[in-house]
Amino acid sequence: MSDNRVMVLGEKETFVIRILMKKMGDAGIGSEFVPLSVNDINTKWKECSLITIYMDEHAKAGRDILHFLADKAMEDGKLMIAIGDEDNVRYMCDHVPGELLYKTFVRPVDNEKYINTVREVFDKTAAGEFRKSVLIVDDDPSYMGLVREWLKGTYKVAMANSGLQALKWLGKNRADLILLDYEMPVTSGPQVLEMLRSDEETKDIPVIFLTGKGDKESVMAVVALKPQGYFLKNIDREELLTKMKEFFILHKQNR
To answer: Which is nearest to 53 in space by CA: 42, 66, 39, 38?
Structure first.
């Protein structure tokens, strides 16, 4: 995926869109116009890092296209900006999850404000502000460090070597997911899960257990606690990253 590149979607490349793209080019931001069709979007998808949908008085993105875009953006962690009249913008807000729609502009768009918004998205992306936050809780520092190395390029990763330390960290920070060691001394994983579920501030944080035991009896004991899932500790890097990505996609869709 190219940095600082915007896909501008519309029914056709109008004069107003060309002016907007020229302004972006003058500001050092790459952009490309792409027609609102599944084939064209798929062809250019990997070349962009931000999507702008421009709807004029003659065209409105169809519901099927918006659902297609939302699914692809959700899967690849891309954000969208919508430009249109008030009805267009309201329509976008009704059909695209709010977490994917970074900002909306009512036509006629202020080009300077739009470009500043694009820069803001790129700056925040570079700073990792849109990354999901994952807390790893494990008493084995070597294993915890290994998992952190695997995840840190994709997620904001924090570590805690005990349930108490995890709860202390969560008192000041937010996590989108907790990877929790099932077998810990002093306070076990199930006990930590119980404490998390009994606290109003942490009860809704998804928890996936990390366990070294893959036999049926052990797995059934883990599943009986109703976490969001479990990973065996012998999982490799690629499988872990794939399963994490799948989890966040499904978690968004089910909320």
So the answer is: 66
